[in-house]
Write a structure and sequence with these properties.
Number of helices: 6
Order of helices and strands: EHEHEHEHHEH
Radius of gyration: 16 Å
Length: 166
């Protein structure tokens, strides 16, 4: 039986740790992991992303739980990997306004904003045509608690859809 893997692409939100800590502390019926260390292209990204999926598969099997991971991941980064087929994969991509990105970058003391702003604008304009299975979540007007609640509701609704299909 395939397990659910929920992937939250959080590239545009430098303050994501507060959101995920809130979510992680709430949930006990699925495991929430930070995939950020596997998202950069410093060494062998394909190797490490494959290891991430293998880890998710093994943990999911052993705990008999669905897995939710967050990180700057896009479908083209992992869809063709062997372990991807083990899961029913659900994608959520976080978007925001340029002003909120800049404000959160300032809080995080990150000086480079161009990448996050350009990717955010590109996603708004193109993502649905390239990755139609991805749900978009605009967090511009949302508090961290509200974002965590929305992500949790999305996960619960996806799990409900899968059990209805069984």
């Amino acid at each position: 039986m395939k397990r659910n893997l929920f992937i939250i692409d959080d590239y545009v939100d430098p303050q994501k740790d507060a959101i995920y800590q809130t979510l992680k502390n709430k949930k006990k019926d699925y495991l929430f992991l930070n995939a950020q260390p596997f998202c950069n292209d410093v060494f062998e990204p394909r190797f490490y992303r494959q290891k991430l999926l293998e880890l998710c598969r093994d943990v999911s099997e052993q705990l008999n739980m669905d897995i939710a991971i967050c990180g700057a991941l896009t479908p083209d980064m992992i869809e063709k990997m062997e372990s991807y087929a083990f899961f029913n994969v659900h994608w959520l991509t976080i978007l925001s306004s340029e002003e909120k990105i800049l404000a959160r970058l300032e809080i995080s003391k990150i000086k480079e904003s161009t990448g996050a702003i350009l990717r955010n604008e590109w996603v708004k304009a193109n993502y649905k045509t390239l990755f139609p299975q991805v749900k978009l979540l605009d967090i511009t007007e949302m508090s961290d608690e509200s974002v965590a609640d929305t992500i949790d509701r999305w996960i619960v609704s996806c799990r409900g859809e899968m059990s209805d299909a069984d």
